[in-house]
Amino acid sequence: MVESAVMEKPTKGSSTILKLDAAVIGAGVAGLYQLYRLRKQGLTVKAFDTASNVGGTWYWNRYPGARFDSEAYIYQYFFSEEIYKGWSWSERFPAQPEIERWMNYVADRCDLRKDIEFSTTIKSAHYNDDTGRWTLETDTGLTIDTQFLIACCGMLSAPLTSSFQGQDSFKGKIFHTARWPKDNIDLSGKRVGVIGNGATGIQVIQTIADKVGHLKVFVRTPQYVIAMQNPKYNDNDVAAYKARFDELKKTLPHTFSGFEYDFVEDSWKDLTPEKRQEILEALWNDGSLKLWLASFSELFFDPAVNEVVSEFVRGKMRERLKDPALCDLLIPTDYGFGTHRVPLETNYLEAYLRPNVELVSVKNNPIECITPEGIKTADGTVHELDVIILATGFDAGTGALTRIDIRGRDGRSLKEDWGNDIRTNMGLQVHGYPNLFTTGAPLAPSAALCNMTTCLQQQVDWISDCIQYLRDNNLNVIETTKEAEDAWVEHHDAIANQTLVTKTNSWYMGSNVSGKPRRLLSYIGGVGAYRQKCDEATADAYSGFDKR
Q: Which residues, in sequence order, are CB contacts of 64 under 8 Å at separation 6+?
């Protein structure tokens, strides 16, 4: 039986106090499952979300073209076969409206809404050394007193919305993709500028190119892209993937990336050039992230192998672009395939061949500011626009937590700590912050390099089991030791620094945020290997963690 949350009567002039065993920040993929798990364990628990409904990233990212790049049948919860099989997807990579409906379906099937406070932002979370509990303050005036604090804030949920001087002066409309309005935005006949051509920008560009009057795309860093193959599903397709429930549940947690596929077994050096080409062609034709995450592991370590694969992708892009000038601006040459996030796309490159689409390179002619009329570049040109779309990304991994005033032991600040050096133990706890658990945080695969549902479910399960262990053993507080955190950071860096990913500037390395400490945000040792490390700590009575 789940106990009811205790609402303490406030003293005169104070706010309402809600007393909990556990507070969960976020009602996305991780938050919903965390709420489900802890409630099943009998804890008094509530989740809190700034949004007005469930969904997390799939609530906020409702921009034109938003969709999965994980296959729908693996971007799933596997704690319930009934829930898995009770939902049928319409296509391989569904769009945001369908994904949002699915998340509402899960929340309703598990009756989670009654324990979620929507339209509520956690402003601060302070640890009390004397009580071993956390005090949270919300923007609604609610004070929360909780033993455990679980941050399920999302790895890409702190958008960089104020990127340019003069944004407030613009006479038209400005939208950030991660804060897209629910109301339909009519772009027909408008002069639209899109800033950013990462995975999100690509989805926007390819979707609106034939709908706007004129489109200007401001490109700084060209991207390698893979043409998406997105077939519609019929009843037989749906039945086929549902029949794989047990197989997928068993195998996904142990692959390199949490997807259903893994690297080819043959070593690059043992294959003939013809055989390598044959494998690359097959992976390309799959139209998924398979070329990136299930081709040759040497792609991430060996510059010569990476260059061959990179040139293979460049060739595919040249075939479609044809125009040498566009090829120069849209095909990367100064970094290797797979060392950035690799987007899937549908007719993205062809959008630039349209007469109403114009590419503005800002690599050597950066955006200086936004004026009342539009976007001004360093050469003095003002690009007049009616609408500006910011696909400018996020303060990834850390931003969702550092935007909350989180204070640990002796009042230490997480924002200050991570501003100096980004450190965690397995992305699950931070030294100095007892009883604070994190999902989607730095130095775990879930920070970037994973099918998110695979990794987030694993982290939620580990956290839930850890809390159950504490309760079973009459323990109240757990905190990673400094020694264990140091050891994990050293292990993480040792693997990361062998790869080509750390040689490239990208949001994976925090390079998109001025002053952010440089470290690969995501553990790159593999999802299966990470799980094994977590399981080893569990089996050894949570070694590396102080418990009292």
A: 203, 204, 207, 208
Summarised one tens digit per residue, pLDDT across range 49-107 is 999 999 999 999 999 999 999 999 999 999 999 999 999 999 999 999 999 999 999 99
Instruction: Give residues with Cβ within 8 angstroms of 192, minimum separation 6.
Output: 208, 212, 213, 214, 215, 216, 385, 386, 387, 388, 389
How many Å apart are CA 498 and CA 518, to the nearest integer? 15
* Extents of the domains making up the chain: 6-158+395-547
SS3 216: strand
Residue with tokens 């062609």: 281
pTM of the full structure: 0.96
Convert 123-172 into a string of H (helix), E (strand) and C (coil). Answer: EEEEEECCCCEEEEEECCCCEEEEEEEEECCCCCCCECCCCCCCHHHCCC
The C-alpha angle 430, 406, 62, rounded to 5 degrees, equals 95
Q: Within 90-198, where are the H helices?
A: 96-109
Q: pLDDT tens-digit profile of 253-283?
A: 999 999 999 999 899 999 999 999 999 999 9
Please report the pLDDT score of residue 31 as a whole number.
Answer: 98
CA distance 439 to 446: 7
| Residue matched to tokens 């490390």 | 533
Closest CA to 51 of 142, 166, 182: 182
Return the closest-CA partner of residue 145 out of 161, 159, 133: 133
Q: 3-class DSSP state for residue 33?
A: helix
Q: What are phi and psi of 268, to 5 degrees?
A: -55, -45
3.30.2130.10, 3.40.50.300, 3.30.1850.10, 3.50.50.60: CATH of 6-158+395-547:
3.50.50.60
State the Cα–Cα distance between residues 180 and 162, nearest whole angstrom: 15
Question: Hey, CA dihedral for 298, 302, 304, 308, is it positive or negative?
Answer: positive
- Across the chain, what does the average pLDDT equal? 96
